[in-house]
Amino acid sequence: MRQSRTLSATEVPSKRLLLRTAQATDREGFIELLTDPEVQAYIGGPQPRSDVEQQVDARLADVTPKPGRYVIADGTTNRFLGILTLNRRSPEDGGELELGYVLRRGAWGAGFAFEAATTALRAAADELPDQPVLLVTQTANKRSLTLATRLGFRPVRTYEEYGAEQTLCTAPLSMFRT
Ligand SMILES: CC(C)(COP(=O)(O)OP(=O)(O)OC[C@H]1O[C@@H](n2cnc3c(N)ncnc32)[C@H](O)[C@@H]1OP(=O)(O)O)[C@@H](O)C(=O)NCCC(=O)NCCS
């Protein structure tokens, strides 16, 4: 049987959230994520709104399926809260699953990233064979490292990239099986 590349579901609900595909109504939320200096502090820095608008419009116009890329929405209001990715690295980079998460500043501190990540990892663990999942974060990004640890990821090594120290963390996917 051919191994799925990543989690195949296009929608995954949880107690408070819905992981879903992007919609036109997410435009302002995406623009905010890319332009907010606090959100972008450890992930490349904020971009000017004028540059980001075109990028976001192109992304929203592209309706081809994007497995492993989710908008984190409020399960009741459908409001955009952030994004979660569970993508597979290219074969040249090892081909492993890699988790990523970005929340709008106003959605920090409520456990939404933890809930979204747990939901996606559980669904992936129920669908895919056991394998390591990677997570890379700047070592200075304490919120992200705390979240990674709470999810059960363990730091394996640090290295320099993009002018900053990065921490590579890993967890076995089977740890999230329900
Ligand atoms: C990394 C990031 C997603 C973490 O967000 P977060 O809200 O701190 O993460 P969590 O979902 O784990 O929430 C934890 C907080 O919610 C609180 N919380 C409230 N209700 C909760 C619940 N039901 N369950 C868990 N935590 C809850 C926790 O006490 C904690 O609060 P604290 O930060 O005051 O200690 C966020 O800071 C972010 O988007 N940063 C910018 C993007 C980025 O750097 N991404 C990482 C790329 S590698």
TrEMBL record:
InterPro entries: Acyl_CoA_acyltransferase, GNAT_dom, N-acetyltransferase. It comes from Nonomuraea solani. GO terms for molecular function: acyltransferase activity, transferring groups other than amino-acyl groups. This is Protein N-acetyltransferase, RimJ/RimL family. It comes from the Bacteria. Gene3D superfamilies: 3.40.630.30. It holds the Pfam family Acetyltransf_3. Coiled coil: none annotated. Keywords: Transferase. PANTHER family: GNAT FAMILY, PUTATIVE (AFU_ORTHOLOGUE AFUA_3G00765)-RELATED-RELATED (PTHR43792), N-ACETYLTRANSFERASE DOMAIN-CONTAINING PROTEIN (PTHR43792:SF1). Residues 17-178 form the N-acetyltransferase domain. The keyword Transferase applies.
